[in-house]
Amino acid sequence: MKKYHVKEKHQQENLFIATALISTSMVITIQLVNEKIDSLQLSIALYCFSASIPLLVGSIAALYLEKLYKIRAHIWYLWICNFFGCFLSIAGIGSIFFNFNWILGTIFLTCCLFTLFVIVSYTGLLEKINNDDQKDEEIEIP
């Protein structure tokens, strides 16, 4: 098992993302529960939210546990919890847009993919232009 120093910056980013997705998923779920679900897209959205909310809550719980310690463990199932929680929440939101209109769903999906590309590219650029002294790298602890 790999061990790493806990980084406050990464924890805050992950906490913000998980909290925002849980909040959005909960608001949409409450609205959908009050509606008659008569389309496949709305059913898909409810299934996505029913899985993503507990996964994201688990991710938040793990982030709070890590704050208590200086060293964290790198475990595969926590990564799966984070990834699928975020993925299913965004898929549920996309399904809502596809329910309105396939053009809106396509625009949402295209913008999500473009935003992912921008974030990955910009993160790489920031890491490249910053000095190694200022770079916040994960250091593996033996």
Describe this protein's structure:
The protein has 142 residues and is mostly helical. 75% of the residues lie in helices and 7% in strands. The chain has four helices and three strands; from the N terminus they run βααβααβ. Strands 2-1-3 form a three-stranded antiparallel sheet. The radius of gyration is 18 Å and the shape is globular.
What is the topological layout?
Elements: E1 2-5, H1 8-33, H2 40-67, E2 71-74, H3 76-100, H4 102-129, E3 140-141
Antiparallel strand pairs: 1-2, 1-3
Helices and strands, in order, run as EHHEHHE
- C-alpha geometry: globular
Number of strands: 3
- CA radius of gyration: 18 Å
Q: What percent of residues adopt helix (DSSP H or I)?
A: over 70%
The main β sheet shows up as: 3 strands, antiparallel
Determine the number of helices (DSSP H or I, runs of at least 4 residues): 4
Task: Specify the structural class.
Answer: mainly alpha
What is the CA-CA span between the terminal residues? 10 Å
How much strand? 5-15%
Low-pLDDT segments, ≥5 res: none
Mean pLDDT: 85
Task: Enumerate the strands of the largest sheet in spatial order, edge to edge or round the barrel.
Answer: 2-1-3
Nutshell version of this structure?
The longest helix has 28 residues, at 40-67.
Keyword list:
75% helix, 7% strand, 142 residues, 3-stranded antiparallel sheet, mainly alpha, single chain, 3 strands
